[in-house]
Structures are given as C-alpha cells and as structure tokens.
Amino acid sequence: MASAWLCQNIIICLPRQYLWTLYALAKDLLHPTPEEERRTHKKKRLVQCPNSYFMDVKCPGCYKITTVFSHAQTVVLCVGCSTVLCQPTGGKARLTEGSFVFLLKLRQV
C-alpha cells in the first residue's frame, strides 16, 4: 500500500516500507540536544541567552580573586600584584598560564 505526501506542491507516493526514512530525517525542534543548543546562535535558541559570563579568577602570585568578564576587550591586571590575568582575543579572553577560574562561581550575564 502506498502513501501520498504533499511536499511543496509536489505529491510524493511512497511504499509503506520507505516511510521510516522520512521519519528518521525528522528533527525534534522542541527538545534539542545540549550539543545542538550550544552550537546554535544565541538569538536562535529556544530560550535566548548570551554566550558571555563573569568568572572569578585567582591570581597565581598573590592568590587574590578578581572578577573578569569572559569576553573582556582589555588586558585585566591583578589588583594586588598587577600581573596580567587575561588577554583579549577576537572573542573570549585568554587566561594567562598559572591563573585559574573558579568553576563554581561562573555566573551568566
């Protein structure tokens, strides 16, 4: 038994055994995987949220904690010993070697 499908003003007649291929190509738009959600543009997600965040960075020299924006456009210096904590790139700021981020303190903007 064949089934008829209307696709952009073209009627497609397929045997029942080939219908599973059409279902396999279907994509669940309401429940994307976390990987798909991460790769999509920030404005095209189901819930719009920015890619940027604030993070607490600990200085390797004096062990003081400084809050740094993830996409900082200027060089961020430590308040205590004025060592460079991160340097700007085209997108996210690059942390210098030795300084590390407290992952528990990540906060979305």
UniProtKB/TrEMBL annotation:
A Gene Ontology BP annotation from the UniProt entry: translation
Gene3D superfamilies: Zn-binding ribosomal proteins (2.20.25.100)
Stated name of the protein: 40S ribosomal protein S27
HAMAP family in the cross-refs: Ribosomal_eS27
Any Pfam family: Ribosomal_S27e
Membrane-spanning intervals of the chain: none
GO MF terms held by the record: structural constituent of ribosome; zinc ion binding
Any one GO CC term of the record: ribosome
PROSITE patterns cross-referenced by the UniProt entry: RIBOSOMAL_S27E
Cofactor binding, per record: Binds 1 zinc ion per subunit.
Family to which the UniProt record says this protein belongs: Belongs to the eukaryotic ribosomal protein eS27 family.
Keyword field: Metal-binding, Ribonucleoprotein, Ribosomal protein, Zinc, Zinc-finger
Cofactor(s) the protein needs: Zn(2+)
